[in-house]
Automatic annotation (TrEMBL):
PPR repeats lie at residues 124-158, 195-229, 230-264, 265-299, 300-334, 335-369. Residues 42-52 have a biased composition (Low complexity). This is Pentatricopeptide repeat-containing protein mitochondrial-like. It comes from Trifolium pratense (Red clover). NCBIfam families: PPR (TIGR00756). PANTHER family: MITOCHONDRIAL GROUP I INTRON SPLICING FACTOR CCM1-RELATED (PTHR47934:SF6), PENTATRICOPEPTIDE REPEAT-CONTAINING PROTEIN PET309, MITOCHONDRIAL (PTHR47934). One of its GO terms (biological process) is mitochondrial RNA processing. Belongs to the PPR family. P subfamily. Gene3D superfamilies: Tetratricopeptide repeat domain.
Length: 460
């Protein structure tokens, strides 16, 4: 297929050469790479085009760029190279290199790089930015690392952004953490100086690898080398400390941030609040929640829900009620997670009146009660014999088109069967649809009624 296509193109190119013109279809268009490289068309190339039998390098560049098959593009490139008085421009090299890289023809890419170097073409750092990206997407950390030194061979000074991209690729592979660290330490020998992002990349990698001490060393060296840490620098260490359950150290870092004038972001506070709650330091978590607004970060629904969950998990749902009141006073409205967590916590403590109040508050605000909320409250009410209230809650759930779970039916149906006829009549008025899942409870209900009938029969 390639040979047939090349034969046609070769014939066309010969005809064009005899007429000293190269005809391109009007459909050919510049790629983003071509547009970026237009500035590199030198005057010498334009002079050469008049004596070249196949036209200017720019026209050949357009033809190569229009090819979807990289091997066919290479044949056109090679054919043009053989023509007298013809020299490809830098943009053509760049386009073909990118075609090889994206199609994973890396041996052809390496050959073209060597040829580019031998022809002493003017090179820009943009080429290597593309190469690093290509090697990263192809999962080739070795080639990404070698790109740094290839730039030096081309007399191109790597930029800090090149260093950071290479480091990011290397640390994404655990086996390349040491080579990444070595490159980081040696970069200054080539007048490439790591910035805050460079330190953050390595700090995060070492923290995820469990080497917090090395990350701390890097953090401290930032100050010695006049590199200013940012919020992310602190957060990386704080998250690592929290994962190690060293929440006191994370709190100390927060104080250091605040003393240095940093305003912690939402994620930083979420990390700390979650860690404090898991360590059962609920008083400290609540104090931090109240302190956030004063320090320039308004608590959001995630922060409040984290503390609500912490209180409920430790059997302190009554304190969680205060958090819900606080959040509404601060203009942050509770969501379904807030209510579900709180109602479950209140039911677990037997605080059914309070739980009922919050369920009704949910409904008044237009929330559709989650079946887990209904189940917890119905179960709690049935356990203490408050069947009528349980039925009322179930009725409201159905009115809001929320289908109770089959376990809820299994709890309430036996209670209804034991209740007086008036309660049963009221429940039977409920419109039961397919999505109420009562069919799932049917087998259990049948077994229950059979047992009840047999018990009555034995009495007689």
């Amino acid at each position: 297929m390639h040979n047939r296509a090349f034969t046609v193109l070769s014939k066309n190119l010969r005809i064009i050469a005899s007429n000293a013109k190269l005809s391109l279809s009007s459909g050919s268009s510049y790629s983003p790479v071509q547009k970026q490289q237009t500035a590199f068309h030198s005057s010498s190339n334009n002079n050469n085009s008049s004596s070249s039998p196949i036209g200017s390098p720019t026209r050949v560049q357009k033809l190569i760029a229009s090819q979807s098959d990289p091997l066919l593009a290479k044949e056109i490139f090679d054919y043009a190279s053989l023509q007298p008085n013809f020299r490809h421009n830098y943009s053509t090299y760049l386009i073909l290199i990118l075609k090889f890289g994206r199609s994973k023809h890396f041996s052809l890419l390496d050959d073209l790089l060597r040829r580019l170097k031998s022809e002493s073409q003017p090179i820009t750092p943009t080429l290597f930015s593309y190469l690093i990206k290509i090697y990263g997407e192809a999962n080739l950390p070795d080639k990404a690392l070698n790109t740094f030194y290839t730039m030096l061979q081309f007399n191109i000074k790597p930029l800090t952004k090149h260093l950071n991209r290479i480091l990011q690729i290397l640390v994404s592979h655990r086996n390349y953490l040491r080579p990444a660290f070595d490159l980081f330490k040696d970069a200054h020998k080539h007048d490439v100086f790591p910035d805050t992002k460079s330190y953050n990349i390595l700090m995060r990698a070492f923290c995820l690898n469990g080497d917090i001490s090395i990350a701390y060393t890097l953090f401290n060296k930032m100050f010695k080398r006049d590199v200013v840490p940012d919020i992310e620098s602190y957060r990386i260490l704080m998250q690592a400390l929290c994962r190690k359950s060293q929440v006191n150290g994370a709190v100390d870092l927060l104080e250091d941030m605040l003393n240095k004038g940093f305003v912690p972001d939402s994620l930083t506070y979420t990390t700390l609040l979650n860690s404090l709650c898991r360590k059962k330091k609920l008083r400290e978590a609540y104090k931090l929640l109240c302190r956030m607004k004063v320090k320039g970060c308004n608590p959001d629904i995630v922060h409040y829900n984290t503390v609500i969950l912490g209180f409920c998990r430790e059997g302190r749902a009554h304190d969680a009620c205060k958090v819900i009141d606080d959040m509404q006073a601060n203009g942050c409205l509770p969501n379904l997670v807030s209510y579900r967590t709180l109602v479950n916590g209140l039911c677990h403590l037997g605080m059914l009146d309070e739980a009922t109040k919050y369920v009704e508050e949910m409904l008044s605000k237009g929330f559709s009660p989650h079946f887990a909320v209904i189940h917890a409250l119905v179960k709690g009410l049935c356990n203490v014999g408050r069947i009528e209230e349980a039925c009322r809650i179930l009725t409201k759930s159905l009115e809001h088109r929320e289908a109770p779970h089959k376990d809820t039916w299994m709890i309430i149906i036996p209670q209804i069967c034991d209740a007086d006829d008036s309660v049963l009549e009221e429940v039977l008025k409920i419109e039961i649809k397919g999505d109420t899942r009562i069919v799932d409870a049917g087998i259990g209900l049948e077994d229950y009624l059979i047992r009840k009938i047999r018990a009555k029969t034995r009495k007689f």
